[in-house]
Amino acid sequence: MFKNYFKTAWRNLSRNKAFTAINIAGLALGLTCSLLILLWVLDEYSVDAFHKNNPQLYYVYEKDYENGKVLGSYNTQGLLADELKAKIPQIKCASEIERSTFIGFEAGNKILKKNGVFAGNDFFTMFSYPLIHGTTPALLNGINAIAISRKMAEEFFGSPGNAVGKTIRYANNEDLIVTGVFDNVPANSTIQFDFVRSWEAFMIQNTWAKNWGNRSPSTVIQLQSHANPDKVQTDIKDFIHRYLPTGESRIELGLQPYQEKYLHETFSNGSPDGGRIEYVRLFSIVAIIILLIACINFMNLSTARSIHRSKEVGVRKVLGAARFRLIVQFSGEALLLTFFAIAIAVLLTGLLLPVFNWLSGKQIVFPLQQSFFWLWLLCLLIITSLLAGSYPALFMSSLQPIQILKNKMKFGARSIFFRQSLVVVQFTLSIIFIVAMIVIYRQVNYVQTKNLGFNRDNLVYIPLEGDLTGKYNLFKEKASTIPGILAVSRMRQTPTGYDHHKGGITWPGKDPNDKEEIADVIVGYDFVKTLQLKLKEGRDFSTNYGTDSTNFLVNEAMVKKMGYENPVGKKLSWESEEGTIIGVLYDFHFYSMHKAIDPMVIRLNEKQKYWTALVRIEAGKTKDALAALQKISKEINPKTPFVYDFADEQYAKLYSNEQLMSRLANCFAVIAIFISCLGLFGLAIFSVEQRTKEIGVRKVLGASASNILSMLTANFLKPVVIAIVIAIPVSQYVMQRWLNDFAYKINIEWWTFVLAGILATLIALITISLQAIKAALANPVKSLRTE
User: Fold this and answer.
1) What are the C-alpha distances in Å from 514 to residues 65, 70, 72, 505?
2) What is the pTM of this model?
3) How many angstroms separate the first and last alpha carbons of the chain?
């Protein structure tokens, strides 16, 4: 029996090559998209999943209550980890983590830049970063100890074994001993590093971290295996108040599972609540929608062609076939067709994976050798074949044999309405994709081209390391003589990477209950000139005024917060240092457009230890200017490689998630529309076949080709128009919710929906017009003779 069903299914598929090809192509494309998104989602969930202690690992975050607002942050105190471990018995291990980027290393005749972390002694005990050489307890003991990666060991010493015990120079000012070598950090680790230094060394270099009022490092703890996380969170909730002075703003500690941070790193009401998980959910829904569109094609075409299978059904029923057996037969055909589609989808996924990795910035490997992948494929095969084939099977098996054998078989209004409804669903989803594509593109373009209040074009960031730290003035003097260099300055961090806020900034009339921390920026001379900021009133820092080291610049948001009408000349205190506001800057963006502009205070400090040089280059002279800067850097700082970043490139990285969403949305929108058009094309072929005789009679009676064309296209455009009406409010709601994540955003203009509707209509017209024109121009004699 099953052999007969298979033969029948194969015969039907091979006889109807056009419909078979359309069905398989639509399903294969839908399944390919679903597989690619599935691999991306699995990769997102795999981040940090390799740590053996994951069930017991937790990030400590801080919840700040300030001025009626609740803010959350992963920045904690430098003393917190050791104190938690000492005072809370349920905590087995604890480690601070502070990143250290673009550090110059020298060993032998090699000088390279590397990224790393400062961490506590428990770091390698807590995390599964395998050690090749060295033992965990002694690995980070001492301020001169350093553990390096296999790659770093091979680059400097030839092999991991040769590295242990050797000396390597750090930042051109410290000689460190390699105490161990760990295996290269996997790509699915959120912390990427080539070296690890002891926390003891960090505390010596950064004395501010010994003050409980200062925060920057992350704190990660490992609980005892029997510990209750909820109880530990309750125990540490008010832990920080033991060490803060009376009157400080209220701070609570909370716990977040370590692996969850990657997907849930944004805060809402002081707690981790969102982040990349929103994109994971969104693209999971996209995968389901695209697969649904492909399944709708199958259902539509299968039910439309049921009239050609009706006699087969009638004969089988007369000969005693039960409805259940017919359902099994037609479901088996759907399963066979889906199997072919999945085979093609697997091949396409393998071919497209490199391109998808480029689009998504991933390093996904096709998991053909992993059993879970084949299990997913089996589930996908069953679900897709049931989804696509269930309704056609139920519909075909319900046909009445008497009507079929008397040639009275015809589609009722319900059947036609159902097929048109499916077309409406397809195009509604496709139009939503088009609207999303337009809105996302406009918003990403808006945030990347919006006037930030400072000019990020032709602005270069150069880290001041090694000898450049102490010889900055010489570097600035020489750099200023280079043709094409317009200005040189420095600041504590970089404009696009700036994230430093400070309490203790006061002014006359400040509300004593206002504990909000103010964004504080420490800069050198010519900062305003180099960034091309605009002064609203007052003046910039100048060497002509010896007291400027105690004076301040503020932005408009700070003036609004202070409530001053004429702020220039007013007093402002930076903890114990009192100064005067000498200038007001128009508001400018140092952060992404997700966040509103913070009140900001800028002060001059030429003695600050850590700096980034900011260099403004004349347009069109970047290449020559950078070559000259490299030459100067090599003369002044020969043991540290010359590196730099462009401000516009760093700014673009702030929107990596949005850029990813834009690229993928464009691709999926095109695919969804294409799959929908495949189904519409198949229905057009079927409709023309069914109305061959009618078209011939109309032409004989004098109907023109344009009359025939309009008649055929009108029926297909109706569901498209209905889809446009439904899609407009839905897409408006969905995209407005997405835009609400931005503090600065575009308005969704009316023309967005008009453009999406016109595009959908044009695509539908082009799809069906091919068959409609062919039918309108056909010789009526041939069609009537055929009938």
Assistant:
1) 11, 13, 17, 10
2) 0.79
3) 36
